[in-house]
Write a structure and sequence with these properties.
By secondary structure, the protein is mainly α. The protein has five helices and four strands. The structure holds zinc ion (ZN) (2 copies). GO terms for molecular function: zinc ion binding.
Length: 118
């Protein structure tokens, strides 16, 4: 009885690494929703649609990699935002205290502003 069931558990194919894993999370499950998996997968160069004929499961290894990649992207976006506002604040050539990068020695900035063609 019990052994009969086991023979049929071959695992699921992971959408991201194509490996067959026993422990996977379905992309449209509650668990995936709480982990924001779909949101994170949107940042990848693939498209996942609910009714495409492709695997809807993702393995634990890939979730881990996805988390790392997601936090990296968030960090880059945040940093980009800070640098942009740094630029806006610097329109007068100084770094005021309101600037998120205030106090940071930003040599790239001064090089850029000094190297005006004369
Ligand atoms: Zn995987
Ligand atoms: Zn600044």
């Amino acid at each position: 009885m019990g052994s009969y069931d086991k023979a049929f558990i071959v695992g699921y194919v992971c959408r991201l690494c194509s490996e067959q894993k026993k422990k996977v999370i379905h992309l449209y499950s509650n668990k995936a929703q709480s982990l924001k998996l779909l949101e994170k997968i949107e940042l990848l160069p693939i498209k996942v649609e609910k009714f495409d004929n492709l695997p809807k499961t993702i393995c634990e290894n890939c979730i881990e990699r996805l988390e790392i990649q997601y936090s990296l992207i968030q960090k880059i976006q945040k940093s980009n935002l800070i640098q942009r506002s740094h630029r806006i604040y610097h329109s007068n050539g100084r770094c005021p205290i309101e600037c998120p990068l205030h106090g940071i020695n930003d040599s790239s900035w001064s090089v850029q502003s000094d190297s005006s063609v004369s």
